[in-house]
Amino acid sequence: MITAGRIVRLAESDRAEVHFFLDGQMRGALAGDTVLTAMLASGHALRKSEFGPEPRAGFCLMGACQDCWVWQDEGPRIRACSTLITEGMRLRTTPLENWP
Amino acid sequence: MSEALSPRIVIVGAGPAGIRAVATLVEAGLHPVVIDEGQRAGGQIYRRPPAGFTRTAEQLYGPEAAKAGALHALFDRLAEEGRLSHCAASSVIAIHEGRLHVLGESGVQVVSYDRLILATGASDRVAPVPGWQSAGVYSLGAAQIALKAQGVALGRRIVLIGSGPLLTLVGAQLVKAGADVAAVLDTSSWRQQMRGLWGLAARPLVALRGLAMRARLGGRYHAGVTLERIEADGKGVTAMRWRDAGGRQRLTACDMIGMGWHLRAETHLADLAGCAFTYDERWRQWLPKTDRMGRAGNGVYLAGDGVRLLGADGAEIAGRLAAAACLADLGYQAPSTSADLRKLARVERFAGGLARAFPWPAAMVRALPDAAVVCRCENVSAAAVREGAELGSGEANRVKSLSRVGMGRCQGRYCQLAAVELVASQIGCAPDAVGRFRGQAPVRPAPVGAFLREG
């Protein structure tokens, strides 16, 4: 279900599984995961820096640094550290090319 | 009910300070409004996991479990009894003419107040280390939040760097939870730490508990280190390069780094509310000015780490004091404050000891290589800040406009102190002569659509 990502689950792994889509690919996570936890459980980054070559994976986890904004298929961005993942959520690491 | 006639008191922040302030007001018969960014009250240090998580308070908060549990239970009871209004998951993004602009899920709402208590807390005080923009570098607070609120470690092999009580605490918590902590690197030397001893002796049990945690870190802990750089590849962090107290070069492989040098007060809202600021030499940062009770003037009161960096216990005291001041100013019967004022003096002495023992790494920041990133939001380099310092005659806001340091999405929260240090070094003045970045609304990014529904 969950392949090797950046984070390691140390506790609380007995929760219901939820599924979401990242860049169109289905991924698994656990109910109660933040979007950040969900994305980094099977990946290494949340987005690319707009100002440098490096990927970013969040920094403060308390809504202060704004480093973890990710795109959604329908347009609006969300702060990954303070938003809980929900079943069927559609997330993107890059903005849609034909976004209005 | 006389609710319509009673003054409207708004408290921003539901951590230890905010919760104690609320409870004090409720006891006096008032019905305060609490606005907090968390889904559930508790703040950061006593942050609660989402519903459905099963670890006990002892597992989550260790020796502080009783305090955390008492605060959570108190807030939940007052909320259940309908004695307060709780706006959860809501951010105050602006303050203008006695009105708060509050961003929640349904957009921006305007909330007016007669009295305002700001208990906005603190975040990690971070200093740039070359390579810190890489994926896998987090604040120490982030590592703790991930563990508490999500039950996860942010990496497979962890190095913690910085100085301060959180460095040891997070290290010990991660080790206990089963994470692989490779090294805990403290930039403060043993000798420097001894200088804080007199202050730390004000709370001997807390100090001893810290030493016991330090002992649990064993050979992972190194004092008096020099941090050279964070190595990374295209995916993120690969190693920490550092020198030990004896000057030997060390390279520790890791995929996650947690960093922090104690705390930085969150003061944006106090700034927008018109509070005066003063440069605090002990904490090497600008803090809002208040009296002992937390009065900042104009009906605004401040409590907790957002005004004085005293930690959770000090925040509880400050929350009660600010509410008592507010009640007295409104002509209500206020509870006695003499015991709390005595306790405040003791936690202040202890906090002074911490500030001395675990200082801001000014020399490290001043020696930052030109190519190092100072602002993580927009990758503004040390060279750009130094150039801006010359062009902007060493004044903080001019340097900000010229170099864009502090203009990214975090609004200077994680670069301001380092930028000011670099400017002071370049110009040859003291950091307080550089000034501070003006706070600007909105203090959190807000989608334009949220304002369309404002009302």
UniProtKB/TrEMBL annotation, chain A:
Species in which this protein is naturally found: Mesorhizobium qingshengii
Keyword Oxidoreductase: yes
SUPFAM superfamilies per record: 2Fe-2S ferredoxin-like
Gene3D superfamilies attached to this UniProt entry: 2Fe-2S iron-sulphur cluster binding domain, sarcosine oxidase, alpha subunit, N-terminal domain (3.10.20.440)
Endoplasmic reticulum found in the keyword field: no
Pfam families cross-referenced by the UniProt entry: Fer2_4 (PF13510)
MF annotations from Gene Ontology: iron-sulfur cluster binding; oxidoreductase activity
Key words, A-Z: Oxidoreductase
Descriptive protein name: 2Fe-2S iron-sulfur cluster binding domain-containing protein
InterPro entries on file: 2Fe-2S-bd_N (IPR042204), 2Fe-2S_ferredoxin-like_sf (IPR036010)
UniProtKB/TrEMBL annotation, chain B:
Pfam families given in the database record: Pyr_redox_2, SO_alpha_A3
Residue ranges constituting the FAD/NAD(P)-binding domain according to the UniProt record: 8-307
Keyword set, alphabetical order: Oxidoreductase
Database matches in InterPro entries: BFD-like_2Fe2S-bd_dom_sf, FAD/NAD-bd_sf, FAD/NAD-binding_dom, Metab_Enz_Cyan_OpOx_G3PDH, Opine_Oxase_asu/HCN_bsu, SoxA_A3
Keyword Nucleotide-binding set for record: no
A single GO molecular function term of this UniProt record: oxidoreductase activity
Domain spans labelled SoxA A3: 375-450
Domain of life of the organism encoding this protein: Bacteria
Protein's name according to its UniProt entry: NADPH-dependent 2,4-dienoyl-CoA reductase, sulfur reductase
Source taxonomy: Bacteria, Pseudomonadati, Pseudomonadota, Alphaproteobacteria, Hyphomicrobiales
